[in-house]
Amino acid sequence: MDPVSVGLLAALAGGAGGELGQQVWAGLSALVRRPFGRDDGGRAPTHSSGEVELVGLAANPNDQDRAQALSTALAVRAAIDDDFRSRLAAWRAQAELVRAGGGSVTNTVSGGTQNGPVIQGRDFANLAFTTAPSPSPRSASGAPGDSAADSAP
Length: 153
Prior knowledge:
There is one protein chain. This protein has a domain of 94 residues. The protein is mainly α. Helix content is 50%, strand content 0%.
C-alpha cells in the first residue's frame, strides 16, 4: 500500500473539507486508536500505532514534518497489520473524495450581460439575495427622462 499523502493528512488536520473533512479526520483518529491486530503472538507492538503522530499533527496542522511522521507511521502499521491495512485503504478512499471535493463542479456563465450576483461553487442551500433592480438601458444612456439628464442646466 502506498503511504497516505502528507498533503492530504495536513489538509484534513487543518480542517479542509468542512464537516465532511472533520468526519474523515475523526474516522482516521478512531482507526489509529484501534488496538493492533494480534498476529504477533500477543506481544506488545514494537512500532508506533500512529496515535502520537496523529495528536502532534492535529496540534500543528501546518507542520509538514509531523504530517510526514504520521504518513510513515500509518504505512509501517499497514505493513504489519492486515486488518489495519484494509481499514486504512477504505478510509483513504473516503478521504480522497474530500480532497477531490466530493465530486466535480463545472460553472458556466454565458448568454450576454449578467445583472446580478453570480456564485460559483457546489451544494448551496438556503441562499437569498437582495439587490437593487437592474438599470434600464434608457436611463443608463443618459436619454431624456433620465433624472440626471433632466436636471442639467
